[in-house]
Structures are given as C-alpha cells and as structure tokens.
C-alpha cells in the first residue's frame, strides 16, 4: 500500500512541461532557469516583438551564466546556451500554450483584474492535472485563484530578480492549496536549484513585506531632503552590507511594479503609513521612467 501511494504521488508530481506566461524581467528569468535544468518550456507573450525581446534577454543572461559555469571550455558554454534556448518555445496564444502543461507560472503585470482575465481562460484550456502558480509580488494568491475551479491546484511561486542569480523561492500555500500541490511546488523549486521557503498567503509573503516598506521609506527620506539618493544608497551598501542601495534597487525592480504593490496595499490597509505610495515614484511612472528596464528611474542607465 505504501509503495502504491508513493508511486501515485510521484507520477502526479512529475513536472516536465512548464508554461511561463509573461516574458518580462521575471518571466524570461523563470523560463531560462527551468529550461537550463532540462525542462520543456513554453513562453507566452502578447505579441511576437515582445517574444523576441524576451528571447534576447534570455540569450544575454545565459551567456553570463555559461561564462561562469564553463569558463575554460568555450564549446561546452556554447552547447549549454544553444541547448537551453532550444528547449524554450515562444507562443502568443495562452490557451494553446497550456494544453500539455504540467505547471503554469504566471508573471504578467501586477494587476488583479488582468490576472483574473488570464486565469479564467487558462482554467478552461488546461488539463485537469495542471498546477497553476502566480509569481505575484503582493497580491493574495487566494484572490487570484478565486476565479478558477482548481483552487486546490493553485499556489504561489515567488521568484526574485535576477532569477538566474537569486537563490530564494517563496512557495505560497493558501488554505485551499492541496498537500500534493504544495509538495510538487517545493520539489520542483528544489529541482531547478532554488532554496525554497514556505509562506502563508499574507501581503508580500516574507521578503516583500519587509523590503517594499524599506524601499518606500528610503524614497520618502530622499523626498524630504534628509539625504541625497546617492548618499542613501552608499549608506546602505557600506553601512549595512546590502549589494544595492534602496533607490538603485527600486530602479531595478521597476517603478510600475513598485507602485502597483503600494497602491494595492494602501487601498486594502489605508491606516498603515508604510504602505502610502510615494509621489516621486508616481511621477516617474507617469513619465515612463520605470527604472533599469526603460533606461531611467532615479538614475540613468545606458
Ligand atoms: N543573468 C545572469 N547572471 C547575472 C545577471 C542576470 N540577469 N545579473 C547579474 N548576473 C551575474 C553577473 O554575470 C555576475 O557574475 P560573476 O560573479 O561571474 O561576475 C554576478 O551576477 C554579479 O553581477 P555584477 O558583477 O553585474 O553586479 P553585482 O555584483 O552588483 O550583482 C546583483 C548584481 C546580483 C543584481 C546584486 O547587485 C544584487 O544581489 N542586488 C540585489 C538584488 C535584489 O535584492 N533582488 C530582489 C529584488 S525584490 C524581488 O525580486 C521581489 C519582488 O517581488 C519585487
Ligand atoms: P514586466 O513588466 O517586466 O513583464 C511583464 C510582461 O508580461 C510584459 O512583457 C508584458 O508584455 C507581459 N504580459 C502582460 N499581460 C500579458 C498577458 N495577458 N499574457 C502574456 N503576457 C502578458 O514585469 P515583471 O517585473 O516581470 O513582473 C511580472 C510579475 O512578477 C508581477 O506580478 C510582479 O509583481 C512579479 N514580480 C516582479 C519582481 C521584480 O523585481 N520586478 C520580482 C518578483 C515578482
């Protein structure tokens, strides 16, 4: 009996085809890391141009990984890049892209209504076995899952930017996520080389509940004129040992994403002063200065 239940659970948890929806900063990294460990990946974007951009971002990042992993062997490095790229198929039709999928990881814009529209469609198109996961930074996984008929096969897989470098994966289980789904997500996370922690479905899980208010406090400090952006960043790098200062990190995460997080939390928890959106960040978003990804935020990038 033990043998049978073990093998059933293993086959149910086997994940070899994954679909990543959204090929931006996060989705391209997730697709890359999964393909690098031998999985077949379908990457979905809204049009062919954005798919091409995602493929270029992946090729660039894979080049950096290969340079490190195969530093004395150029042909092994090239083989690794080519083989990994060949496992990633682009698609602009999300329903078609989930037809053979064992796991779907969604990494599209941080807006609940947009995620709902997508998951309603995917729920109808995907096989019953398919596990759905969101990479949301700040929304409730339960709220996202609420529009589907697979709440037991729905959880959170929260990666960190840059995905190929950051070791952590937050695995989020809601009150309705089944034990099998949770186990499959944890096993999958480990199999792609991440260190997994378990989180409840609370705002920002662990990292962002601490990080997002910290970034907002640093922005407010600069807005008050207490110190310059450069000095705040230098302070946190040299005084607290962080790899990036908070203003640099806000540029790196993307101001659209940051603002969506704060606006969402402020609406839900209006009395928490840590969640008040920052005026200078709102202005940057209005001007299209979203940070590193558009070439300008609090700093300029070339
Ligand atoms: N792909 C592949 N490799 C990459 C990479 C990428 N996109 N970005 C950096 N690397 C590699 C580099 O090639 C380099 O490799 P070597 O050690 O072989 O030289 C290594 O990472 C270090 O990179 P750099 O020398 O360019 O620069 P760095 O030392 O400043 O490191 C960093 C870059 C890893 C991004 C580091 O600055 C860092 O850890 N920053 C903080 C990042 C962070 O906090 N991320 C979390 C954001 S919050 C989030 O993601 C959650 C959310 O929901 C908002
Ligand atoms: P991004 O803007 O870089 O990428 C989002 C991509 O999704 C865009 O390329 C867009 O064209 C695409 N997209 C939008 N709607 C789509 C749809 N219906 N179907 C297919 N593709 C669609 O954003 P990002 O930084 O990659 O963030 C994506 C998600 O990951 C968000 O939920 C965000 O909160 C979360 N996240 C972001 C970070 C970060 O540091 N930026 C870290 C962890 C999690």
Features:
Rossmann fold, 2 domains, N-(1-d-carboxylethyl)-l-norvaline Dehydrogenase, domain 2, 302 residues, eight-stranded mixed β-sheet, 8 strands, binds nicotinamide-adenine-dinucleotide, binds acetoacetyl-coenzyme A, 13 helices
Secondary-structure topology with pairs:
Elements: H1 2-13, E1 17-21, H2 25-36, E2 40-44, H3 48-69, H4 74-86, E3 88-91, H5 94-97, E4 103-106, H6 112-125, E5 131-134, H7 141-145, E6 154-158, E7 168-172, H8 179-191, E8 195-199, H9 207-224, H10 229-240, H11 246-253, H12 255-268, H13 279-286
Parallel strand pairs: 1-2, 1-4, 2-3, 4-5, 5-6, 7-8
Antiparallel strand pairs: 6-7
The site of acetoacetyl-coenzyme A has 17 residues, from α3, α9 and α11.
Intertermini distance: 61 Å
How many helices?
Answer: 13
Outline the biggest β-sheet: 8 strands, mixed
Strand content: 5-15%
What form results from the Cα inertia axes?
globular
Q: Any idea of the CATH topology of the largest domain?
A: Rossmann fold
Count of DSSP E strands? 8
Notes on the structure:
There is one protein chain. The chain is globular. It is α/β, with parallel strands linked by helices and 302 residues long. The protein starts with a helix and ends in a 16-residue tail after the last helix. The protein folds into two domains: 2-199, 3-Layer(aba) Sandwich (Rossmann fold), CATH 3.40.50.720; 208-294, N-(1-d-carboxylethyl)-l-norvaline Dehydrogenase, domain 2, CATH 1.10.1040. The chain has helices spanning 2-13, 25-36, 48-69, 74-86, 94-97, 112-125, 141-145, 179-191, 207-224, 229-240, 246-253, 255-268, 279-286, and strands spanning 17-21, 40-44, 88-91, 103-106, 131-134, 154-158, 168-172, 195-199. Helix content is 51%, strand content 12%. The protein has 13 helices and eight strands. Acetoacetyl-coenzyme A (CAA) binds at residues 61, 64-65, 68, 137, 160-162, 164-166, 208, 211, 243-244, 249, 253. Its EC number is 1.1.1.35. CoA binds at residues 61, 68, 137. The record marks 158 as: Important for catalytic activity.
